[in-house]
Amino acid sequence: MDFGAWPHARGDLVSARRTASAFLDSLPPEDDCAQMVRRGWVATWTGTGDAYCRLADLNINKKEFDEATEAWLCALTAFEVARRLVRDDDPRSADVSAKVEAGVRRIGVSFGREVESVRIACDDLGEIGGYYLAAGAPNPPAPAVICVSSEEEKAATLLGRLLPVMVGHSMSVLVISHAEVANRARGESEVVLSHCLDHLSARSDVDSSRIGVYGDGLSASLATGFAAYDRRVAAAVCDGGIWNWTRSLKSIGWMTSTDDGADNEMLSAYRSRLARLLNCPILVVAGGRGVVSVSEAIKLQAVCVAARIDVDLLMPQLIRGCQGEAIDNFVSSDDCIFRWLAQRLSQNSTCDESSERAPSHYLSLPIS
Known about the structure:
It is built from 13 helices and eleven strands. The protein has helices at residues 13-25, 35-61, 65-85, 92-106, 108-111, 155-166, 178-182, 188-201, 219-229, 242-251, 261-276, 294-306, 330-344, and strands at residues 116-121, 127-133, 142-148, 172-176, 206-215, 235-238, 282-285, 311-315, 318-320, 326-328, 364-366. Helix 2 packs antiparallel against helix 3, helix 3 packs across helix 6 and helix 4 packs across helix 6 (155-166). The radius of gyration is 21 Å and the shape is globular.
């Protein structure tokens, strides 16, 4: 498929995201990726986002707010593709990120639901900031998800990536940055996230029994700790404890080079114990840009199947871009994650804590 020239911007979000996904899947391996071609792609996708912004402004002037919203969401998708392609040391990197943040600020004009900047008090731990987007009509109250950005992203950047996904789901989101949660003393991250859950529970438009958490990148480990700490969490996109226990094994020299059966049995028991700390269905994102390896995730799921613990896997396709860095198909991955969350947080899927959990279906969600 030739992505050298973008078709006329028409504000069709489904088509825009389908094209973005196909482009990311078609990226050539790094040896075939010339720097000049890469620069052209960044310019093309940035220019596409700018064209959608102009279209949104035209629609706002005509008071065609639904069309303006769709054009803004298309622009955010295009800018996110450009952000994935541009190198950190490229002067355009800051410009693309600024365009995403500007789009987040302006989309409320047409969205009919304003993106709300919130401050959440955390008692003696101070307060943290974030962004809240309501699901829409407050009746009936909708499920909500606490989304924690990856370690290198601001909350506004993650929100810009997720807004085009959220338009298709009746759920609210509270987006906060990794830095707001992670840079804390041991145990305080879980307390901070519990205050976030308290904040959502107190809102009349949120169903307090259907609040989940999604940790992106290294924040997947934070989501695991939070889900184990606060039993009100109804679903978690997390690492299943893999990041922390792998670091612990390395620190005490337990990374074995043998196939000793006793060691394998011990490791399986340890995985199972960690997973049992979680009281809700979990989705582990393995491979890609995440912190969990595919092999460890498969071992974790095998243990959980035997222990009747509800765990699903998502294994995004990883594209090796120029200079060897990883570029993932965020369009397909985000769609899968939020379809899973919508299903698990639906009224028909709420957990009965007194009943034995059903076994995982060993569901694998490959992204092609």
